[in-house]
């Protein structure tokens, strides 16, 4: 059976697609950055995401402490300080878990979470 599409044409297609996507995404992002705006709305960034990032840093430090100091794996699953009490992983999954950049919050003090994601900083946009 004969191939109708060569491997080279598939590579060319993916390369062209990636380049076009990069140009369009860069143009759209430039519109925000050029006007001093952020892709995160201020009402989401400060009261929700920034506080969640600080909490996530404390959570990760607690997990690492139990692993390396107490030599056991213990993941806190529930916290009464989240709303009226909530599941930690489910709540943080919406805001942070899955984003590899937020893992850097383990190295930042809880008072300065904006150092991890500067676009969440007050007055940024």
Description:
The protein has 3 helices and 2 strands. The chain is mainly alpha-helical and 125 residues long. A two-stranded antiparallel ribbon has the order 1-2. A hairpin with a 6-residue loop joins β1 and β2 (86-87). It is extended. It starts with 6 loop residues before the first helix and ends in a 30-residue tail after the last helix.
Structural class: mainly alpha
Sheet having the most strands: 2 strands, antiparallel
Kindly provide the radius of gyration, computed on alpha-carbon positions and rounded to a whole number of angstroms.
Answer: 21 Å
pLDDT under 50 segments (min length 5)? Answer: none
Approximate shape: extended
SSE sequence, one letter per element: HHEEH
The chain-level mean pLDDT equals 83
Arrangement of strands in the largest sheet = 1-2
Please count the beta strands (DSSP E, at least 2 residues each): 2
* N-end to C-end Cα span: 58 Å
Strand fraction equals under 5%
Quaternary status: single chain
Number of helices: 3
Bin the helical content.
40-55%
């Amino acid at each position: 059976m004969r191939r109708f599409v060569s491997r080279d044409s598939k590579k060319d297609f993916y390369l062209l697609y990636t380049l076009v996507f990069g140009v369009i995404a860069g143009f759209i992002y430039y519109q925000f950055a050029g006007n001093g705006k952020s892709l995160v709305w201020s009402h989401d960034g400060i009261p929700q995401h920034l506080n969640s990032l600080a909490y996530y840093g404390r959570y990760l430090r607690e997990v690492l402490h139990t692993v390396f100091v107490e030599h056991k794996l213990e993941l806190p699953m529930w916290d009464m300080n989240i709303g009226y009490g909530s599941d930690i992983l489910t709540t943080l999954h919406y805001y942070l878990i899955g984003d590899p950049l937020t893992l850097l919050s383990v190295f930042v003090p809880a008072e300065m979470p904006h150092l991890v994601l500067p676009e969440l900083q007050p007055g940024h946009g």
